[in-house]
Amino acid sequence: MHKQLLIVLFLTGIVASCETYPQDEYQEQYVVEAYLVANRQLPSILLSKTVRADVLYDFEEQSINNASIEVQLLESGPNSAPEQIFTYQNQLPGIYIPNPNHKVLPTRTYQLKITFPYSDDIVTAYTVVPDTFRVVGEVQDTVEYQSPEQLELTLTQSSYPGRQNIYVFNALAQNIIPQNLTPFYKEVYDESETPEQELESFSNNSSGIINEGNFELNPNGSFTFDFPWIGIAFYQENFIVANTIDDNIYDFIRSQETQLGGSTFSPGQIQNVIYRMNGGIGIFGSLATDTVKTFVELPVL
Q1: Could you tell me the pTM of the whole model?
Q2: Number of neighbours of residue 256 by Cβ within 10 angstroms
Q3: If we measure between CA atoms, which residue out of 131, 129, 152 comes closest to residue 140?
């Protein structure tokens, strides 16, 4: 199995501009981005500030430096005492790295704490890390695009306290050229408009949120999921990444989807994006992940 880190969200620049409505008074806020991955080293943390909606956001210009950042491994869940504390150092503008590092433990709770030398502001958040899982069984080395034999993934069970597991699947294309686009994406691709950016946007295709209840439960307790063909944007080699996500990432994705038109609510009824963070906005989230590789062939005519 290939171990490849998936960045579920490219948050900075999405939430970084002001998200207030016209009648609201703009207030500058701290923006945090960090994703803990079970059994991986602690991640870098990005720290910046928002700008008004009519101002172009640039991470380096809006970066916040010289903050004091620590991630605490809690003893027994939210509001419990720290078992270990990991400090961070400001390596580049707005980018903080752990010192020393630490392998993220599945099913444990981690708390973020950020303080600032020039104010009494504090940013805090916590995440409960999902349990690990594996992609098991035979995964097709080669599949024919849109053939009756669909690409299947069988996963061992994970767990998350208080709810079913929630998954996001991604197809990461490895040969990103216009000639490799599958029919749907070839039709919507406009080479005349920022071709490199548009191609790149197709290279990491997300399934969106999928509840465990949508899977086929096998007698041995594993789950099988049919990866949809619409998720494949490019022929040839693709990494298929399975992720189970924490409440923070789940709430961010589902609330952001309503902001981007993924609901039938009228504008006055649309909820704000859910950040699960005190003293700022952004994501301090966690996930467990596994990756397999397959080769997608052109259909036989």
Answers
A1: 0.86
A2: 16
A3: 152
Q: Measuring CA to CA, which residue among 231, 246, 171 is closest to residue 204?
A: 171
d(CA 158, CA 133): 5
Instruction: Compute the distance between CA of residue 127 and CA of residue 130 in angstroms, rounded to an integer.
Output: 9
- On the question of a cis peptide bond just before residue 299, with omega within 30 degrees of 0, the verdict is no
For the segment 139-156, the average pLDDT, to the nearest whole number, is 91
DSSP state of 179: G
For residue 298, the number of C-alpha atoms closer than 13 Å in the C-beta half-sphere is 6
**pLDDT per residue over 10-66, tens digit each?**
444 445 555 544 446 788 999 999 999 999 999 999 999 999 888 888 999 999 999
Six-digit token string for 104: 């993220």
Cβ within 8 Å of residue 197, ≥6 positions away: none
CA dihedral 188, 190, 195, 199 (to 10 degrees): 10
